[in-house]
Design a protein that fits this description.
The chain has 211 residues and is mainly beta. It has four helices and 13 strands. The strands form three sheets. It has a seven-stranded mixed sheet with strand order 4-5-11-10-1-13-12. It has a four-stranded antiparallel sheet with strand order 2-3-9-8. A two-stranded antiparallel ribbon has the order 6-7. A hairpin with a 2-residue loop joins strand 8 and strand 9 (100-108). The longest helix is centred in the middle third of the chain and has 11 residues, at 116-126. It is globular, with a radius of gyration of 17 Å. The protein starts with a strand and ends in an 18-residue tail after the last strand.
């Protein structure tokens, strides 16, 4: 059974909410993470495995992009990842919505504005640009039995982060968004595009930062 880090790419979905928490202005951006019984890169994400694990998304980091160092992907809680990719954002309220899992990405606006990455994120949201997300999770991968819809089956999901993407094309196709590379550490990293066109929302003027 192989161990892999998977990046499953989706879209942030509105509407954005605004709150004050402990004296800080925060925005809350809903985002879909994974859909039941999805096959990505030949790997089957079964409902049972999702249900066992999705609450582990709560409290995970929401970095700007997937953290890397010297070409190797990092755990989002790694100090280098926090320092270089952190935008004072995290994930909460992981929940089932029909046949998929949704989370809320909480962004501390005043703190995010203090660093360059956070400023870029806030500017993109202020402009009404689509924000894609990509969930990083670890899993074991085993061969699927003969006759299964997928080649492999993912087991024992451990959710690491939900990255906010600004530097990748928004209108990417499933084929263009699927790649496979291997970390120098030998850990397989799988990048997958989850193409749920019906969930794509146009970000309108009411999503301004000062709304």
């Amino acid at each position: 059974m192989n161990k892999a880090l998977v990046h499953a790419r989706s879209n942030a979905v509105g509407p954005i909410r605004h709150e004050v928490r402990n004296g800080h202005n925060v925005m809350i951006v809903p985002s879909y993470v994974i859909k039941d019984d999805t096959v990505l890169n030949g790997i089957f994400y079964g409902k049972d495995e999702i249900d066992k694990s999705f609450e582990g998304l709560n409290g995970t980091h929401a970095p700007l992009g997937h953290p890397q160092k010297d070409g190797m992907f990092l755990n989002a809680a790694d100090p280098v990842a926090v320092a270089e990719n952190g935008v004072f954002a995290f994930n909460e309220n992981a929940r089932r919505v029909d046949d998929r899992i949704a989370i809320d990405v909480v962004i501390y606006k005043d703190r995010a504005a203090e660093n360059a990455n956070g400023q870029r994120l806030l500017e993109a949201i202020n402009k009404g640009e689509p924000i894609h997300t990509s969930t990083g999770l670890y899993m074991n991968i085993e061969d699927a039995p003969e006759g299964h819809a997928a080649e492999k089956i993912g087991r024992n999901f451990v959710w690491d982060h939900n990255a906010l993407l600004l530097d990748e094309p928004g209108a990417i196709t499933p084929d263009e968004g699927v790649g496979l590379l291997v970390n120098k550490s030998g850990l397989t990293v799988i990048n997958s595009r989850i193409d749920w066109a019906e969930d794509d929302l146009a970000w309108a003027a009411e999503h301004l930062l000062d709304s």
